[in-house]
Amino acid sequence: MSSSARFLVVSIQNRRERERAERHQLIIDAARELAEAEGWDAVTTRRLAEKVEYSQPVLYSHFKGKDAIVRAVAIQGCGELARLLREARPSRGESRLRAAAEAYLKFARERPALYDAMFVQQSDLPWGTEEVPQELLDAFGELVAAVEPVRGERDLEALTEVFWSSLHGIATLMQGGRLRPAHDETRLDLLLGALSLAQDEDRL
Amino acid sequence: MSSSARFLVVSIQNRRERERAERHQLIIDAARELAEAEGWDAVTTRRLAEKVEYSQPVLYSHFKGKDAIVRAVAIQGCGELARLLREARPSRGESRLRAAAEAYLKFARERPALYDAMFVQQSDLPWGTEEVPQELLDAFGELVAAVEPVRGERDLEALTEVFWSSLHGIATLMQGGRLRPAHDETRLDLLLGALSLAQDEDRL
DNA sequence: TCTCATCGCTAGCAGTGCTAGAACCTCTGG
DNA sequence: CCAGAGGTTCTAGCACTGCTAGCGATGAGA
User: Fold this and answer.
1) Per-residue pLDDT of chain A (204 residues; tens, 9 = 90+)
2) How far is CA B116 from CA A18, B62, B71, B112, B175, in A?
3) Do B180 and A157 touch (CB under 8 A)?
4) Which of A121, A120, A96, A127 is nearest to A196 (CA)?
5) Distance from B46 to chain A by nearest Cα, in Å?
6) Contacting residues of A for B175, CB less than 8 Å apart
7) What's chain B's Rg over C-alpha atoms?
8) b/e string for A117-144 if b means 16 or more Cβ within 10 A?
């Protein structure tokens, strides 16, 4: 085989890999769009295959199963949440904690299906012993940074977990219609006031 | 028809209704047991029918569909949670808030499937405009009572919503393995300390 | 041009929630 | 005591789900 032919083979392989990667992302995007438009119940392998204009088995050549597709959507969602939290700079007079809380709740409110895949559906995303995706660590890191200014003497990680849990609880209970919309503002004020240090009580 | 015959008819009807009610409860119990033993995925109409020793259509003569069965389990779960919260009296030196929080989290930890049906699966249980089941109101009422001692000047309902949301967030994120078990105690201490009034800072 | 491997497709499986209509059983009126 | 009415339960099936075996076409290499 000539040298140029060898390069040709390599470049053809490259093109194939590239096309494959594009289709991979196409599937993830289609799943997310379908879920956001009609809910995860509407995301069946048949409808998804139709949307990406391939047959069902193609999905299984990219992902081990439907769960793996949802997981991929969730991981990219974590990346997006991390970005939003990073860009959520407090406006004048506003605490960083509040800016983060508002950005988090806004994300959960505006992208309920995506939020569901990330934190509600127990798709045993690898949190525990196995490798936690970087996107998730990034998002948690942003929350840590937002909590840091009010930590005082308290354990930073545990305090961030409390902050996150509270936001998550509010987000999911709101989504389920369990909380009264009339209390939205008061609730956030109460939470932020409680988590902030006592000497910051003239708050936010 | 004689008078005694009329009474006989009535008593037969009563017996039938009683048996029907028993079977109704039998289905609910079987669904809960199956879910608690193997998770809600294992609760299929076929397996449930097999467990109660009737055919599938019988289920549909009692409930509109599978969702209605889950809802019935959830409502009875709310009743149980309300009872546990009511009975959760603080031991000496412990705040009522802490006793309630611990009882709530214990329930979520020990009965994850039941908790799931109650607060995670969006079975559009009638919370909003429609009639909220009394069991749920009772449970929320217990939380309100636990929060009342620390309300200070704050809105009691909104503060209870924050308390509930935080507990719910901790419960669900823990269940999903998102929080570090090592922080369990610290987390609860931080939450209770934050929600309690500043002057109670020498806390709990 | 022929061979072969890779790829995507058709068709199908087992299982899901749910339901129409047959089968059965009990009670009633003659 | 018996025929039939009424209600109840079951059998069998539909349309759908996630998933996969195995065939057929397409394109690369000799």
Assistant:
1) 444 445 555 566 667 778 888 999 999 999 999 999 999 999 999 999 999 999 999 999 999 999 999 999 999 999 999 999 999 988 888 999 999 999 999 999 999 999 999 999 977 676 766 678 999 999 999 999 999 999 999 999 999 999 999 999 999 999 999 999 999 999 999 999 999 976 444 444
2) 42, 22, 11, 6, 10
3) yes
4) A96
5) 21
6) 122
7) 21
8) bbbbbebebebeeeeebebbebbbebbb
Give the ipTM. Answer: 0.90
Instruction: Give the distance from residue A9's alpha carbon to the nearest chain B alpha carbon, in angstroms.
Output: 46
A121 touching chain B per CB within 8 A: no
pTM of the model: 0.91
CB count within 10 Å of CB B68 equals 14
Measure the CA–CA gap between B19 and B54, rounded to whole angstroms.
14
Say how far apart CA A55 and CA B111 lie, in whole Å.
41
- Does the CA dihedral A12-A14-A18-A21 come out positive or negative? positive
Domains of chain A: 8-63 (1.10.10), 70-204 (1.10.357.10)
- At position B50, the amino acid (one-letter code) is E
Give the count of alpha carbons within 13 A of B135, CB side only. 16
Does residue B67 sit at the A interface (CB-CB below 8 Å)?
Answer: no
Which residue matches tokens 């969602």? Answer: A77
Q: Hey, what are B18's tokens? A: 């009683």
Whose structure tokens read 């308390």? Answer: B163
Tokens of residue A14, six digits: 């490259």
